Amino acid sequence: MxxxxxxxxxxxxxxxxxxxxxxxAEGEKIASITAYDASFATLVDDAGVDVVLVGDSLGxxxxxxxxxxxxxxxxxxxxxxxxxxxxxRPFLIADMPFMTYASKEQALDNAVRLMQEGGAxxxxxxxxxxxVEIVEFLASHDIAVCAHLGLKPQSVHxxxxxxxxxxxxxxxxxxxxxxxxxxxxxxDIVLLECIPAALGKHIxxxxxxxxxxxxxxxxxxxxxxxxxxxxxITSGRKPKFSKNFLAGRDSALExxxxxxxxxxxxxxxxxxxxx
Length: 275
Ligand code: KIV
Hints:
The protein is of the alpha/beta class. Helices cover 41% and strands 14% of the residues. Strand 3 (91-95), helix 6 (104-116) and strand 4 (122-126) form a beta-alpha-beta unit. Bound molecules: 3-methyl-2-oxobutanoic acid (KIV). Belongs to the PanB family.
């Protein structure tokens, strides 16, 4: 059956931007996770996840790179197309890889590819005030945008490592100003990575759009984790905010369901996962 016909009769219709705004208003936590293929997409949908991101983290967890920098647009299009095939209810976001949004025109061309070829409903890009013009341009073409602030993995070589951002007052104030500027430019979601929990709470309270956090404390409107961290199959050192939800469970589906429930019930993240 065509997806739009399914939607008409669905007891739980597909998530859209309006759903996420309503969830923020009603205080229902948004459970989000990454996925990179159709099989896992089907599992995360069955587990009740609201938002799925085809993240450029695939450069690390799938391709084995040390950073997300080598990921190309073609990589994201390929994985996004597979994920889109496995999803029905969750809202699908695709990452714009490193240097695929260096100009307004380039950003528009590439966002269109992620939507038309990949099946994404929203694109995510990293950056602060410097991306306001790009976000404005995409929004003026009715492209839904998620703005990623805090730790920006694509800037790892400029920043000199993966570390907590916004600890000092000045940096925290700048991050809030950037988030507000991006919201005013038309960003539909803000994602905050690796920042102090108090700052995650403050930014979430100041914005009208939903805020999804990863290592940003318990008070953002939703949480996101890398699927392979949830299943504890990421090799090497684990980030402080990650949690193995497979422990004590006997299937990936049960682990992802447990993650979703823990986000919804506000059990995750606990104090041990926060900065
Ligand atoms: O690439 C990714 O998976 C991400 C998440 C960590 C939020 O950006």
